[in-house]
Amino acid sequence: MPDKKPENLHTPVLLSEALQFLEPTSGQIFFDATLGLGGHTEAILETSGNVTVIAIDQDREAIGFAKNRLERFGKRVTIFHSNFSEMKQVLKKENIKEIDGVLADLGVSSLQFDSEARGFGFRFDAPLDMRMDADSETPTAAGLLETLSQEEIANLIYLYGEERFSRRIARRIVEKRENGEPVTTTRQLVELVEKSVRRSPKDKIHPATRTFQALRIAVNHEIEILEQFIHDAIDSLKIDGRFVVISFHSLEDRVVKQTFQRLSGKCFCPPRIPKCMCGAKETVEILTRKPIVPGEVEIGVNPRSRSAKLRAVRKIN
């Protein structure tokens, strides 16, 4: 257990809004699919002395902090080291067939961003790891840059980072690799991206932000598993159960929005197709016609919340 206290320990994003849509009451069971440092779970447990939470996270270090934070709730919280793609397996282990609410905060935790060793951000020079589960055997970000072709790297950065200079960045990465200087640290990648990206005075983010986002998404397969997780969460809810998702970038939010729309019965098929083929089925009511975003006060206290978007649904069928 590290002795360094993570920043923003007491500032879970959009907390009051999440509780408003989850509506926890006595005797209910909730599932926190992204425990992180435990802020959202703590708030759910504090609403009633008889609410319980099953919580999972793939980061053992985060789980260590969260267990200390939630120790006072005893058996009302059960924590697993797992990925939200394994939600149904976790519930089966607990012999729970239906739950009253699900919360997923898809953002990278402050603990991960502030780590001096894991390479999620570029405040520190660190190995390009970026695995949310540091115990997994999946390739690190450095591993991807070492093995993928120039075209694959460019496509990855463009698709997951929406970076228009992706081809230039990929070319420089491969050139360094072929010269015996593979990109293995955050500082190396930042310097390379800064040389590749033409920055506009209007840009409010660091030029390397999109590339780092893209690599993190690719390493952790974040987009690939998200849609199936949403379906698993809805399947696991009782009728009238609530599902709240907080996302932090447009790719995640787009998947959440469109999956919720399809589950509310909206068909995405071309108009001339006589029969729906996209799987639209009315199983939820959308509670947030537009995403809920943080107010100025919250952004002032926690600047990392500025890109958060909350969407919520209620199971009806």
What's this model, at a glance?
The protein has helices at 15-22, 39-46, 60-70, 87-93, 110-113, 141-147, 150-161, 166-178, 186-196, 209-220, 222-236, 250-263, 296-301, and strands at 29-32, 52-57, 77-81, 99-105, 237-247, 284-286, 309-315.
Verbal overview:
The chain is α/β, with parallel strands linked by helices and 317 residues long. It is built from 13 helices and seven strands. Helix 7 packs across helix 10. The model has no long low-confidence stretch (mean pLDDT 90).
Radius of gyration: 20 Å
User: What count of domains describes the coordinates?
Assistant: 2
Spatial shape: globular
Tell me how many strands there are: 7
Could you list some keywords that capture this structure?
2 domains; 7 strands; alpha/beta; single chain; DNA polymerase, domain 1; Rossmann fold; 317 residues; 7-stranded mixed beta sheet
Summarize the SSE layout with pairings.
Layout: H1 15-22, E1 29-32, H2 39-46, E2 52-57, H3 60-70, E3 77-81, H4 87-93, E4 99-105, H5 110-113, H6 141-147, H7 150-161, H8 166-178, H9 186-196, H10 209-220, H11 222-236, E5 237-247, H12 250-263, E6 284-286, H13 296-301, E7 309-315
Helix pairs in contact: 7-8, 7-10, 8-9, 11-12
